[in-house]
Amino acid sequence: MLRCALCGHEVGGDALRCPKCGGPLQFDYFEGEIQQASRVWDKFADFFPFKLENKYSLGEGNTPLIYLRRLSHRLGVEIYAKYEAMNPTWSFKDRGTYLAIHYALLAGYRKVGTVSTGNMGASVAAYSSLAGTDAIILTSREVSQESLIGMEIHGANVIVVDGDYGMLYHRALEIGAEKGIYFINSDNPYRIEGYKSISFEIADERDADYIFVPTSSGGLYRGIFKGYVEMKRCGFVERVPQIVCVQASGCSPIYTAYISRAEHVEKYENPHTLAHAIENPYPPSGDAVLKILRENKFSCVAVDDQAILEAQRELASEGLFVQPASASAFAALKMKISRGKIERNSRVVLILTGAGFRNIGHLDMKRRICKLEELERCVK
Ligand SMILES: *Cc1c(COP(=O)(O)O)cnc(C)c1O
Description:
Bound molecules: pyridoxal-5'-phosphate
Helix content: 25-40%
Oligomer: single chain
Mean pLDDT: 95
């Protein structure tokens, strides 16, 4: 059963927002017996809203949980990286796109759409070409070349929209309803179901005390939370870890509402951060995240671009090249440790949401050129 994540109103059919309060929708929490298998989609099949077929899958999920030995020693906690860059189009979005396009086909749609600044568009474009659906991708003026090419190479219909990105989400849903396009935006209920798989995989390997989640629209955060709640209700885990909501301080609408104890998340004016994947100024699941934060006494932090860039380099020095949005998780962990908020030897999981190569414009590398005749001198 589909229900409003905010007011609890029951909703049928293909609704994408609550007709009563406008809140985001989600499926009821699953409680029941669990089957055994290896692929996360099969092993946890009971937790998903319909039977998942392999033919719409590009092999998403089952990403590694990597122990970061040196950073752990340095900081005195056990740090694990959930390395989502290993997904087919380099981000966790693939987990949600798989379910959402699969559902769109079951429901008889031939066209799917999304609103994206990068990873989402690439993901929807790739899965659409596998499934044979038409993909309409609405993107902002700020989108990078690397991102656009990742969408266009799959033949998606990419439209660069000049205007308020925060409003684009809602305009897209209206136009989709008019034109029979199923919009699988950032917090579409099937996406949330797909993102639960991250929690299943983590819990299957390790007991975690803290999970740091880079947050923009709030879809990922809601999915990770929902996955843990369901596992707890089924007795698969004993407790839900502390799930920390991480934002960039240059665009932190959820954080701002959280610290000012506001009732609602307001639109963030003049957003500016290098972490473009978490730069949604008006998160469609903002209020739903705020509700989870308050009801569970979870924390929310904002980290600035300088801390994000430093974190990106430090993760790279341990072998993981992730994009700034993803590095924010590590920057947030360091900030919380420096404030004495994380107990020594805690087990911490960083959700490293997407790959460094999606976003390279901000990186300035020093390199040397050596003449072949001088090579012996150059090699030290
Ligand atoms: C989409 C995205 C996020 C944020 O996810 P939301 O569901 O919008 O909160 C974080 N990091 C990366 C790399 C992303 O692509």
